[in-house]
Amino acid sequence: MSMQRITFADGAAYERNMGGWSRLAGGPFLDWLAPAQGLRWLDVGCGNGAFTELVCDRCAPVVVEGVDPSDGQLDFARTRLAGRPVRLQRGDAMALPFAGGSFDVAAMALVIFFVPDPAQAVAEMARVVRPGGTVAAYAWDFPAGGFPLEPIQAELRALGLDPPRPPHFAVARADALRALWAGAGLAGVETRAIVVRRSFAGLAEFWSHSLSGTAAAQMIEALEPAAAAALRARVEAWLDVAPDGRVTATARANMVRGLVPSPRSP
Ligand SMILES: C[S@@+](CC[C@H](N)C(=O)[O-])C[C@H]1O[C@@H](n2cnc3c(N)ncnc32)[C@H](O)[C@@H]1O
Questions:
Q1: pLDDT given at position 3
Q2: CB within 8 A of 195, min separation 6: which ones?
Q3: Cβ atoms within 10 A of the Cβ of 202, count?
Q4: Could you read off the pLDDT of 215-261 as tens digits, one per residue?
Q5: Does any domain span residue 141?
Q6: Taking the model in full, what pTM does it have?
Q7: How many angstroms is it from 105 CA to the middle of ligand 1?
Q8: Which end of the chain is more exposed for a tag (fewer CB within 10 A), N or C?
Q9: What CATH number did the domain enclosing 113 receive?
C-alpha cells in the first residue's frame, strides 16, 4: 500500500481535479435513479458540493443534507451552494447525525472506498432512509483501471512509484458493491457500469486539472526533468487528442442502488 494518503484539505484544488469528473458521472447516475422531484436527500461525503449541486439543479429537492469530515471541502461547498436548500455539517458516514427514516434518498458520490468501514456506512444510510426510499452510490472502478487519473497512476507505478489509492478501492467492483448493499438488508439491489468522458481545452489544461492537489504532482516534480518529460509523453499516449488540440480522457464507474424494505409486521 502507498505510504501516502489521498487527502481532501482544499475544496478548490479538488474542484479542478475531481469535481468536474464527479458531475460527469453524477448525470448518468441521476438518470438511472430517476428520482421524483421534491424529495429529502442525504449526500454522504458531500465534499465540496459537486454532486450536491447537481441534485439541486436536477431534482428540486426539499432539502439536501450534506455530511463530510473535511472543513476544506465544506467551506468550498458552503460558497458554491449558498441560497440552495442545502444544510452542510461536519460528520462521518459511519455515524450519521440523523434520526432513522429522515430521508427519501441517501447517496454517496465517490466516497465508499474512503470510509474505514464501508459496510457500516451502508448500514447507516439504510437506517436514515425511510422504508421504500433509495440508498445509492457511484464509485470509480479502480480495480478495473477506471479511475480518471489511471493513466498518470499507471505510468508512475511503471517507474516503481506508488501513488495513493483509496484504502478500500476494491469495494468499487460491481460484485462487492452488490454484496455491501445486500448485506445492509437493502432490497432490489442493482448495479450498472458507466463510461465517463471529460474534455479538456488542451494538454496544458489536462495536466493542470489532473495534478491539482495530488500526490502524483509531487511525485512528478521530484523526477529528473528528462524522466518527467518521458512520463508525460507516455501518459499523453493514453489520451485522445483531437486535431484542434482538445483532449478527451475516459473513466469508468460502477453505480449501485437498493431500496429500504418495509418493516415486517409482527
Ligand atoms: C472523492 S471525494 C467526493 C466528494 C463529492 N461527493 C463529490 O462527488 O465530488 C471523497 C469525499 O469523501 C469524504 N470522506 C472521507 N472519509 C469519509 C467518511 N468517513 N465519512 C464521510 N465522508 C468521508 C472526503 O472528505 C471527501 O470529501
A1: 64
A2: 250, 251, 252
A3: 13
A4: 999 999 999 999 999 999 999 999 999 999 999 999 999 999 999 99
A5: yes
A6: 0.96
A7: 17
A8: C
A9: 3.40.50.150
